[in-house]
Specification:
2 domains; alpha+beta; about 240 residues; 5 strands; 8 helices
Length: about 240
């Protein structure tokens, strides 16, 4: 990817196409890190995310990025965390001389990292995380590259927001489909119980409910067993509804 003013735009086109064709939300985050690493340029990149209330490196281009990040997660201090919290961009030109986050700087320098750039990922007034770029060269991120990465991250956040909406909608759709399948199974089981015992739909449904409560199992599991036995035997019998008595 070209490292000029159009490079970030080109990268975002690649990112958008990747999401549409192949990517899960996690895959899209990984692609953000990879494209940003190329656009910077940087030797490695990672994305800090908040998982169950705790910061962690959700995706990375090199395992060393995770090791570097762990120090700031342990102390609660570092440019990645501050970028996430304060929604600001933080740059370290020389980790050997950094005084704002000395513990993090020492850890980065020990891994051969001389300069870093951390940017918040924000869309729809929500902070997704922070993009962290690491270079083995001092002062690798100048004002021009920082501005370019700001634009990249702003647009990448929109792609991520759309990806999140897509996967939330997809999960909702899958849950609804599962609910519909469960409902169909329960209705089928009710029909089997009705045919066996001459019960009304309401009475047959209550038979299933009582079996679920008695056995401390989900209603759809009870119904599924009845339907499965009925399917095997080709016709309902006393055994088909025995667990629902």
């Amino acid at each position: 990817m070209a490292r000029n003013d159009d490079g970030a735009t080109d990268g975002l086109g690649t990112l958008s196409q990747f999401f549409i064709n192949d990517g899960t939300l996690g895959d899209t985050l990984q692609r953000v890190a990879e494209l940003a690493c190329e656009a910077a340029p940087a030797d490695m990149a990672g994305v800090t995310l908040l998982v169950e209330g705790r910061a962690s490196t959700g995706v990375f281009t090199d395992p060393e990025a995770v090791e570097i990040d762990q120090d700031q997660y342990g102390t609660g201090r570092g440019p990645c965390l501050d970028a996430f919290r304060n929604r600001l961009v933080y740059r370290i030109d020389a980790t050997s001389e950094e005084t704002r986050w000395p513990e993090f700087a020492r850890a980065a320098f020990a891994h051969g990292i001389c300069s870093t750039l951390s940017l918040p990922i924000i869309a729809r007034d929500e902070t997704f995380g922070a993009l962290n770029l690491y270079s083995r060269r001092p002062a690798a991120f100048d004002d021009e590259s920082a501005d370019r990465l700001r634009g990249f991250v702003r647009q990448a956040a929109i792609v991520l927001a759309n990806a999140q909406v897509y996967w939330d909608a997809r999960n909702l759709s899958e849950n609804l489909n599962q609910a519909m399948r469960s409902r169909a199974t329960i209705d089928y089981a009710v029909g089997i119980v009705m045919a066996h015992g001459g019960r009304s739909p309401e009475e047959a449904f209550q038979v299933l409910v009582r079996a679920s409560q008695r056995e401390n199992r989900k209603l759809r599991e009870i119904a599924g067993e009845i339907v499965e036995r009925a399917s095997r035997r080709q016709s309902p019998s006393e055994g088909d509804s025995s667990s629902a008595k």
